[in-house]
Write a structure and sequence with these properties.
mainly alpha, about 85% helix, 2 domains, Receptor-associated Protein
Length: about 300
């Protein structure tokens, strides 16, 4: 019992340590990124002095461990994780994610070992439990990152039709494409507005507009946005009317949104079948047939 309690305490302490290391804090880099997006951010340097121990010791240690892990792991896997981090909005750095993944794996393995030691003997069930915890510790961080990417892309996908309509209206009213994108970046809230602001800031710093748009498309990773940007770049290079292309793309985007809504509506009955069969129908059977079953049992018992 004492071993189990100690294991729980160690597990909670390591989880709190991971949360403390991965929680984003205001820094000079955050301020520079906010300035690049056109935002204003103030930094309290007195807080940085209070946290000088973590800044001078823990951060370089985590960076060095993450750099060694980055060199040991396959480059293809590292590239995939880096792409997912960019598409997720860069919640943490690559080295920070690798260190957090290693700590998560160590936490689950340690918890499994403590559970086996608390049982008093090594059994096949305990080893299987340890193996499941190890797999979950490896896959858990990547699953979290994938869910974050999907959630961000879903938010961007929801805001695209209205943003495209606003861009089309602005261009048809006489504004240029950059001015229309700037207006959308001001009006649209969420990740898409932030990405547009970063794209426009890069253009103002001297990058070509088509290159900035392509990089924004790569950072987001939504196929509908990639199609829209490719059509705009092609129309600009061929000298055709951008307003006409924007109108067609906006109509296609609304059509895709309606098709996605119809698809979700058709999938709803199938998704509702599982909770109905597993959760609702058994309780209904108990409520409806329970009294009848009790009466039948009482009658048979009285005759016997």
């Amino acid at each position: 019992m004492l071993i189990l309690l100690a294991g729980i305490i160690v597990f909670a302490a390591i989880v709190l340590l991971v949360l403390g290391l991965t929680t984003p804090k205001e820094s000079v880099l955050d301020a520079r990124m906010a300035t690049l997006r056109g935002e204003t951010q103030t930094i309290d340097f007195r807080v940085a002095r209070v946290e000088s121990m973590s800044t001078r010791v823990m951060a370089p240690l985590a960076n060095s461990i993450g750099a060694k892990l980055e060199n040991l792991l396959p480059s293809k896997w590292i590239g995939a994780i880096d792409t997912m981090l960019v598409q997720a909005g860069q919640p943490t750095t690559l080295t920070g994610f690798l260190v957090a993944a290693v700590i998560c794996e160590a936490v689950f393995v340690s918890f499994g070992v403590l559970m086996i030691l608390s049982a008093g003997s090594v059994t096949q069930t305990g080893l299987m439990f340890l193996g499941v915890l190890s797999v979950f510790g490896i896959m858990g961080p990547k699953i979290w990152l994938s869910n974050r990417v999907k959630h961000r892309q879903k938010e961007i996908l929801k805001s695209l039709p209205d943003a495209f309509d606003l861009i089309t209206v602005c261009v048809e009213a006489g504004l240029g494409l950059e001015a229309a994108l700037a207006r959308v970046a001001e009006k649209v809230q969420g990740p898409f507005g932030e990405e547009l602001a970063v794209c426009l800031r890069e253009v103002s710093l001297g990058k070509l507009r088509r290159d900035a748009l392509r990089e924004m498309s790569d950072r987001i990773g939504v196929p509908d946005l990639s199609t829209f940007i490719s059509a705009v770049i092609q129309a600009e290079s061929m000298g055709t009317s951008i307003a006409t292309v924007l109108r067609v793309q906006a109509e296609q985007m609304r059509t895709r949104r309606r098709q996605r809504a119809e698809k979700a509506a058709h999938q709803a009955p199938i998704k509702m079948m599982f909770p109905l069969v597993l959760c609702i129908f058994p309780t209904l059977f108990i409520v409806i047939l329970g009294p009848a079953g009790i009466q039948i049992y009482q009658q048979f018992s009285s005759k016997g």
